[in-house]
Prior knowledge:
Elements: H1 3-22, H2 29-38, H3 52-57, H4 59-76, E1 86-92, E2 105-111
Antiparallel strand pairs: 1-2
Helix pairs in contact: 2-4
Amino acid sequence: MNLMNVLKMQRVVMLNTSLACCKADHIIKEQVTKQFQKIKPYKAPGLDSIPNIILTKCADLLLDRLFHIYTAIYKKKFHYEPWKYFTTVILCKPGKPHYNILKAYRLIALLNRM
């Protein structure tokens, strides 16, 4: 196989994956499970005050219910109002000589989970 054929094959693979990624027509339970696994258990909760550790430990109990909720939201193209809002906490980075520059601060966004 020469270099041109390999490049053509890579281009076809890239086109196929981009089409598959952009053309989502439904949600599957594996996607919801994967998102549960991505949650960092000891991060600060958002406005809903639900600790991430609860979500990670109860994922198997919540999966079916949340799957149906997310599927309905997706099909109806509805954007749940509380998910539009977040709280930003501004923290001073320790050891910075001056706090009059932006790089001396760290911004933390607290998002609603449920």
